[in-house]
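Repro:
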Amino acid sequence: MSRLNFIWGLSRIYKRLISILIDTVFIISSFYIAYWTRVGSIELVTMPSVGMVLGGTVIITTLIFTKLGLYRAVLRYLTFHALAVVSVGTVISAISVATLAFYFDAPIPRSIPIIYGAFLCLLCGGSRLIVRVLIAETNKKGRKAVLIYGAGSAGRQLALALRNSETHKVVAFIDEDKTLKNTVLMGLTVHQVNRAQFLVDKYDVEQILLAVPSASRARRKEILSSLVHLSAEVLTVPDMQDIVDGKAKIDELKDVAIEDLLGRDAVAPQQVLMEANIKGKTVMVTGAGGSIGSELCRQILRNKPTKLVLFELSEFGLYQIDRELNALIERESLDVEIVPLLGSVQRINRLATVMKSFAVQTVYHAAAYKHVPLVEYNVVEGVRNNVFGTFYTAQAAIEANVNSFVLISTDKAVRPTNVMGTTKRVAELGLQALAQQENDKLKGTRFCMVRFGNVLGSSGSVIPVFKKQIAAGGPVTVTHPEIIRYFMTIPEAAQLVIQAGAMGKGGDVFVLDMGEPVKITDLATNLIQLSGLDVKDEANPHGDIEILFSGLRPGEKLFEELLIGDNVEKTAHERILTANESFLPMEEYQVLLSALDNACHNFEHEKIRQLLLDAPTDFNPTDGIGDLVWKQYRSGEIQSVH
């Protein structure tokens, strides 16, 4: 096959000349074969009149083929159009034989042009198909053998898109539709799913491409479960809506979305709830540059507020979300004013001035320090930002006559074992105390809290970390073999937060239905296998990627909870529950805040720890005080004593 590379490498003009020369041979050969087939000998072909007919036919046929563009066709991409040109050309060539035979009075039977045309069509068309196959076979070397899961419209489009790919070679379809079993589509056999292992082994398949863009996540999870054990990487095509909208192409393959592994389908949002606190209003989001805050901004923008105030401490975070939202406004022709403001939630004057100046009506408070180990290492800042920052933002909202205030809380606030979770629970207590006061007013600020677990793709999420570790060849690090977590996509979480906020009556604690918890070890195993690799363990010592257990980090739980008690009720939304939980009156909460303020100011970490333990938060720490500055300060004191 490599010997033909010399021909494939010739310039276009030389290839055309060779094609004309070969077609000339085919025309002469077809004429001789046709004559011999009809007459039984070729003696009369030597007559001058027959020679004139043959010569004229050669000239006319090559001119016709040239005029029809046959020699401009690239054989590598030969299509039905080229074969149609050959057919039309041979018909004209056969007519030329008959016409010239009559004109030169040549001894050519009337059936010869028909026989000649058939042979010429076979030789010219067949040779081109053979060359196309030879080129295709030459190009197949080094290409990845792939299977396409799904022989529907998307699968066929994908196979067509990859037909001339320089990187992929489709070897077969696999599909669960029994009516398609052993049928051939586009030259590819459709196999049942139970033959996937056989096909992977037979063709040394490197990738399986999921072409089921319209399938639900629950269905995708079933499909992935049937493929995850195979030694091939699993990729997927974009969502059908993105393809239809022109945002993606069918052959833009990507990693399997982690939400497909969870098998959880998002519930369509209730538009009335989505718009209740947003449409036609001035809305403010604190922590607007964070993973949850930025998604809240996107969702809010699409529900058409008059003004969206972005409040963010990080200059870079604010710059990014401001640019993105303005681009979204321009793209979707929205009439919303974006107000990008730098500021800290620990500055009550800044907060109150902002809310009054822009007449803010709804606040979504997403600003918080949320990384468990980092807050363990920076206790004072964690308390200042999560407890005092939330309380100051809430007080500023009351001062500015804000209608609705929604706190984004966390499942780690329930029976916390770490400082971060405890500070979020103390923040909830503050809002509950303020809500009790505001509920007695005629038009007081409505406070509510929304708790949920981990979101996929947030900063610090385990999924990107696992993918980087797999790409680097491992090992994948998991804190504990039995650790489990609830997961939800960021868009779904943001939608549910907005809808829950619209249902708040004052002091409500809303809990999002997170579905079934996921074992992190299983998640890591699935990601490794979907990459076409094997887990390396005692049972499989020759595997590719090892899973190492690093031990629980400071303040980390094996599992998280969403409810403190059993007093939970359903709401108008199937994914949102409301919990009735105990709280502190404002007088007692003010005492706690004052004591925490003094302890933080004086850097008294033992006192901070005791105050958090004494507060009604059910704080049950798993580790000692972990503040890095305090530990360094203590070690310096000990050294000076010695």
